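Reviewer 2 asked us to include a model.

Predict the structure of this chain.
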Amino acid sequence: MKQIKVLGTGCASCKTTQKLIEEVLVAKGVQAEVEKVEDIPSIMKYGVMRTPGVVIDGKVVHAGGIPSRAQVEQWLSAA
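Predicted model (structure tokens):
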């Protein structure tokens, strides 16, 4: 099962990113555990300076701004 982390302190962009990822998971029928990481020291461990950040299976795939639906679909098909 994929491990997905949405890194961010709870801003609207972070919430939108998490919702988008969850929608794509359902649409694609992909099983994944989605975790919201809001702790700044934990976010910094990934080297993400701009949020929202997205980590899939331990690899940072996005940082800063809301990703497009196409980007999320690509990450989930590649991961």
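The mean pLDDT is 94. The radius of gyration is 11 Å. We have added this to the supplementary material.
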